[in-house]
Structure formats: C-alpha cells, structure tokens
Write a structure and sequence with these properties.
The chain has 4 helices and no strands. It has one domain. Helix 1 runs antiparallel to helix 4 and helix 3 packs antiparallel against helix 4. By secondary structure, the chain is mainly α. Helix content is 86%, strand content 0%.
C-alpha cells in the first residue's frame, strides 16, 4: 500500500514539475504551440493529477485504517496529508482547469497579454501547490508532530 501511495505522490509532483518546465519551454513559441501546451496541461490535470490524488487519498486512508496503533487520523502528518489532497483538488478544479482553458483560448484569439497573465498566475499556484506536496512529504517521512 505504501509503495502505491508513493507512486501516487510521484505522479502528482512529477506532473507539477512537467507542467512548470513545459510552460517555460513553450514561452516564446508560436500561439498554436502554446495553446496546445495549455490543453496538454489541462489534460494532465484532469487525468494524471486527479488519478494521483485519488490514489494518494485512498491508499492513505487504507494505511491509516489498517495501522490503527501506528498511524492515527489525529496524527499531524495524516492531517497535513488530507490538507494537501484538499489543496490539490481545489487548485485543480478552481485554478488549473479553467486557467488552462483560458490560456489556450487566449492564444487562439491572439490575446497574448491575458495568456501570459494567466500563465504567471498558474505558475505561482503550481509552485505553491508543489511546496505543499513537498512539505507534506517531509511530514510523512519524519512523522512530524507525532
């Protein structure tokens, strides 16, 4: 269960990194390329990141339920884990999904100002979300607060 949990976290963080690196690589490319990349980011968010978040949540719940003596729902590292999943879900639904659609549409309509502004916003949110994931990993590995 732990291995599957770690794979889910790797997929989540790896998607964030790929999305950030891809955005910086697409900068300065054609509007068509940038629109395609925005749609690809949206796809990653809807598929890989959502699947990873569900995997992390389900395996985390199973591990806590199966290990009542060692890992409890009241443990700070478990609470931080739940918070990370909530932050990721909210970011995906409220920021990344609509943002990626807006970027693609803006590039297709020739509105590079709106596209760039939205890319920068998504970059900040993505960095913050990735930081939440990394801090959560540290809480999990070192069982801080337990």
């Amino acid at each position: 269960m732990l291995a599957i949990h770690i794979i889910g976290v790797a997929l989540w963080l790896g998607s964030n990194i790929a999305m950030g690196v891809g955005s910086s690589r697409a900068e300065g490319a054609s509007a068509e390329t940038n629109a395609w990349w925005a749609e690809t980011q949206g796809f990653l968010g809807r598929t890989v990141k959502n699947a990873a978040a569900v995997l992390v949540l389900v395996t985390g719940l199973v591990m806590v339920i199966d290990n009542k003596d060692e890992w409890k729902f009241s443990a700070p590292f478990v609470s931080v884990g739940f918070l990370a999943v909530i932050v990721g879900a909210v970011a995906g639904m409220a920021v990344f999904g609509p943002g990626c659609r807006k970027i693609a549409e803006s590039f297709r309509n020739g509105d590079t100002t709106t596209a760039t502004t939205t890319i920068n916003k998504l970059g900040l949110v993505g960095a913050a979300e990735s930081l939440v994931v990394v801090v959560t990993i540290l809480f999990m590995v070192f069982k801080w607060g337990s």
